[in-house]
Amino acid sequence: MPKGEKRLNRSKIDILDAKRQDAMRKVCKLAQEVLDITAAELKPGVTTDYLDEVCHNACVERDRILLDGDILNLDTLLYHAGFHAHLNETYYVGDRAKADPDLVRVVETTRECLNKVIELVKPGTPIGGFGKVIEKHAKSRKCSAVATWGGHGINTEFPPPPWIPHHAKNKAVGVCKPGMTFTIEPILTVGKPREVYWPDNWTNATVDGKKTAQFEHTLLVTETGVEVLTTANEHSPGDPIPIRAILDGAAEDNGASNT
């Protein structure tokens, strides 16, 4: 653990001045570029070791060939000029994944949960309220929020306060203030929201083996609202799938099979 993190006061949330905010903008832009470069290489047949080579940041331990129908999360942490940026996104691998109702449901619902929270971020918004929004939307799509993981502060340290729970019943305190930088990174599953660790004591998976998705951005609270520091650009891979058409099609197929 870096010495700076050992000195952290876990009850004090950093407020960044203009110079440090600019530094966060720079590192977050670089992190988004790294994610885009890696995501652009996603296609059936490539291996996770290859993606590890492209990204230089991922910690992939196995050489697994990606199959048409997989989904894959790319999580990027970048350190530049003394500041950290953190973001991740879940991507579809091949056309089968984009046509799988359960995969589309969990991926797009997770993406929407992140976006719904971002819309709420502004000075005075209670930090503990984000989890309620995430959990409510997840349940509306028959998904569950994994409560173990949440957002966190991010700046010259990683990760400083605040801790931002992504489930409804939490004890988070404090409100958003201009100059704060933190992440929002919900994880949803179509199964039970509990996880188990693999023997390597690093990798974890859902206890029932069901699919999960996660999306994350680094945010800066401004005087009037929020700036998404790791925002994608028009050329970024990973466009959303129209979820309603996929779910309606699945419902029609189920209805036909039951008649």
Provide tags for this entry.
7 helices; 259 residues; single chain; alpha+beta
Average pLDDT confidence is: 88
Element-level helix/strand string: HHHEEHHHEEEEEEEEEEH
Structural class: alpha+beta
Q: What is the overall shape?
A: globular
Largest sheet: 3 strands, antiparallel
Contiguous low-pLDDT stretches (5 residues minimum) are: none
Query: Strand order of the main beta sheet, please?
Result: 3-7-10
Structure description:
With 259 residues, the chain is of the alpha+beta class. It contains seven helices and twelve strands. It has helices at 3-6, 18-39, 48-55, 94-99, 101-120, 130-140, 243-257; strands at residues 70-80, 83-93, 144-145, 150-152, 163-165, 181-184, 187-189, 195-197, 204-206, 212-214, 217-221, 226-228. It has a three-stranded antiparallel beta sheet with strand order 3-7-10, with helices on one face. Helix 2 runs antiparallel to helix 3, helix 5 (101-120) packs antiparallel against helix 6 (130-140) and helix 5 runs antiparallel to helix 7. It is globular.
